[in-house]
Amino acid sequence: MAKKKFKAESKRVLDIMINSIYTHKEIFLRELISNASDAIDKIYYKALTDENLNFNKSNYYIKIDTDKDNRKLIVSDTGIGMTKEELEENLGVIAQSGSFNFKNLNKVKDGYDIIGQFGVGFYSSFMVADKVEVHTRALGEEEGYKWVSEGADGYSIKSFDKENVGTDIILTIKENTEDDNYDKYLNTNELQQIVKKYSDFIRYPIKMEVDKTKLKEGTEDEYESYTEIETVNSMVPIWKKNKLNLKDEDYENFYSEKHFGFDKPLSHLHVSIDGVIRYNAVLFIPENIPFDYYSKEYEKGLELYSNGVLIMNRCPDLLPDYFSFIKGVVDSEDLTLNLSREVLQKDRQLQFIAKNLRTKIKKELETMMKHDREKYEKFYSSFGRQLKFGIYDEFGRDKDFLKDLLMFYSSKEEKMVSLDEYTSRMPEDQNYIFYAAGESKEMLKKLPQTESITDKGYEVLYFTEDVDEFAIKMLGEYKEKEFKSVSSSDIGIDESDSAKDNEADDDVKKEIFEYMTKALSGKISKVKSSKRLKNHPVCLSNEGDVSIEMEKVLKNMPNNQNIKANKVLEININHKVYKSLKNAYQNDKDKLDLYTNLLYNQALLIEGLPLEDPVEFSNNISKIMD
Q1: Is residue 344 pLDDT above 60, yes or no?
Q2: Is residue 124 helix, strand or coil?
Q3: 33, 358, 397, 602: most buried, per Cβ within 10 A?
């Protein structure tokens, strides 16, 4: 029979199909299997209205065979088949309307049927095949037909003696090139992996002849190879099963099978929504942080399915960055898909699902915090840092959404506490949420700056991660209580009694501190008497928005702009060291210079800051020992 030409628009679509639309050639198998599943579905739907047609699911399947010698890959189904007219209509015209307006492709309501509707997915076969044959016989027809094409030049259709109803698609696989290994599409192991990746949850069995080995009969250590036809897909995904019939072990096995992690998940969410947009999801909160989590190689996102067919291996738009540790799958039949069955990234349906999932994840974490604190603390030790980044990110856009999930170590409780727990037990006269920032809670426990605060019975939160203070600065307040660093120059505590006995000495004190400020010019903004110190002689505080701890963090960042905290040196005038300062000011200015330098360096060490001149500091210590 003479070869028929594709219409002009169809030739252009086919050329784009082969060269541009699909990002991975292996997608062709997903498309053929999906079309085969659609063909079986059509018999099922027909049986619902035709009392003469009995649909026995066990009789319907998809089969994949290979003929390596002749480089053939065959995908067969026992579906409804096609008449000659349907072959012309479905395979003779790519995108049945003949239109080349791709925008219209994105307006289809039912994403599940989009590829079949437009007759496009089938043509992905030409990415891997030089020649494609379709042998088909329609339900209720005695005669079968063969459709043959070698690409954009055209196709032929002729009668064909096919024994059974259904369709066989025979691909003649291309020879290998320098850039592409086409042999893998003839390798049963490779084909199995592609099926498991994209079509594992197709509702009908996908059968393949699988290579196996067994112990040779009559021997103890000799094995022989054999083949066996197996169903290689799972068919019913866990998210479509009744969660009341599932155990934790079932979810853990699924987590392991999908290679979401080598750990066991701390918790899982099984979501089934049947509303304006229908979707199912199974999400996992991992126990351990992935080794590459903070590297460029880490890819966030959930596996996205459309009616059991994998659309995207990682869909980043389903998760905000602060929940990027979540693993799992989402399946929806209501997604609007583009030509290659890859969901449009700014699709409003996807945004709806993402927003809904975000709320459910937060609720699950809050439940864990309230009812299984040990498990939540384990989660928080792995991923609390990411939540804090979420507070700070996008200029604090989601800070109110995340704030109740934060936890910090408490000076009073000596364990991790939430902001809600902290504020719920604040004394009536406490106006601020106090915090101390530093490298470790052991160091922070010894900070001189906390003396007056803890003496009043106030609780101090310890910030030990570099992101902590930045997140809290963005948060600003919690339940109308402002955050206040214990190193702030004004901690908002009335300490008028601390200097009462020295009021007559104000003029001398002022002169001493002015002298010391001049001696430390460029290093601090001023020296002043402390209202917070009780037993310690000296400390550093800061004025303004940049704290001393923030300065340390910023200094270690790439392309730092040398942003510095406005440091204040505070002296405890009730400490005997002040008497030494006063005596030196009146009798020995050189000694006052020595004391000033020593106290400044002492304050640096307390803050965990490097000494500007360790040798000079060591020599100064020797001088006072003379």
Answers
A1: no
A2: helix
A3: 33
pLDDT score, position 4? 79
Domain locations along the chain:
8-231, 238-376, 406-486, 496-626
pTM over 0.90: no
> How big is the chain, counted in residues?
626
Per-residue CA distances from 582 to 505, 506, 603 (Å): 10, 12, 19
- Quick check: 544 and 566 in contact, CB under 8 A? yes
The CATH architecture to which 8-231 belongs is: 2-Layer Sandwich (3.30)
Strand pairing category for 407-410 and 416-418: antiparallel
Half-sphere exposure in the Cβ direction for 100 (13 Å, CA): 11
Helix (H) or strand (E) holding 352: helix 348-371
Query: In the β-sheet with 481-485, what is the strand arrangement from edge to edge?
Result: 416-418, 407-410, 460-463, 432-437, 481-485, 477-478
602 Cβ contact list (under 8 Å, min separation 6):
537, 538
Reading the block at residue 26, the tokens are 């292996």
Which CATH number, 3.40.50.2020, 3.30.565.10, 1.20.120.790, 3.30.499.10, labels domain 496-626?
1.20.120.790
Task: Report the C-alpha gap between 511 and 514 in whole angstroms.
Answer: 5
- Quick: pLDDT tens for 474-510: 999 999 999 999 988 888 776 544 444 455 578 899 9
Residue for token pair 């003839």 = 186
Q: 75 is written with which tokens? A: 């995908």
Task: Record the tokens describing residue 270, joined without a space.
Answer: 């099984």
Q: State the pLDDT at residue 554.
A: 84
Report residue 625 as tokens. 């020992």
